[in-house]
Amino acid sequence: MTRVSILFFCLVLSTSSLFANNTFNTPTEETSDEGDTRMKIRLEFNSINTYTRLINVLADENATIGFDSEYDSELENIQADDMYWLIDSGKYISQGIDEINIDTVIPLGINTSTTGLNTISINKLENIPNSMKIFIYDSELAIYHSLKEGAYEVDLNAGMYLNRFEIVFVQPDTLGVSEFQNQDIALDIMFDRFSDQIKILNHSNLKIETVEVYSILGQAVHRSNASNANNQININANQIRTGAYVVIVKSENGINSKKILVN
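^ that's the sequence the OP posted. Answer follows.
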């Protein structure tokens, strides 16, 4: 089955009556012309294996953040690569919630069967104000990505992700780059522009298992294993473009992350 056939198949299966029965090749933002003023969002998931899934959410004052049989449609045939809304312990292809505002948080689940790059994007919007921001929050990388500005590309290992991704509508005030999350004082993560290296200073000689570097869009630019306790790990950054990156270090003390600026 070709990618075009897969996309058409998924559009037919996953587009419920929350939206008009039309297909859309690019994200759109419009007002319903049938007098329905409810806010509606359709997201699109494209996996490393070119599988596509569309999921929908709408705001209706009669719906709740829990399960509503009148609004929520359970995903019956979950694919090896898939994305869905998480409601309680269930997986849903469409859901209704009472309202969408800056306090709204909508959990997302993702399955992947193959390690590689996956994308999440807006397929269609209805009755969403131009001023409303829509972010996907990646809790592992501590990244808020604006879906209105473009698709979120994330490099995932094969597996199931039930506690990593959320759709939110506000980005909290962030700390400066040098002050970003770094909970383990035994490790110091920095960019040294004089040597053009990312440095992990291991003050307590912890056993470091892996070091990963991600772009602010969630793309992996470096992965390495470190089986021994070294007091310093250097990563050459001469092939890394200028910009903000997230460094994730997994050690015997757990996972430690910090946002750095490569310049």
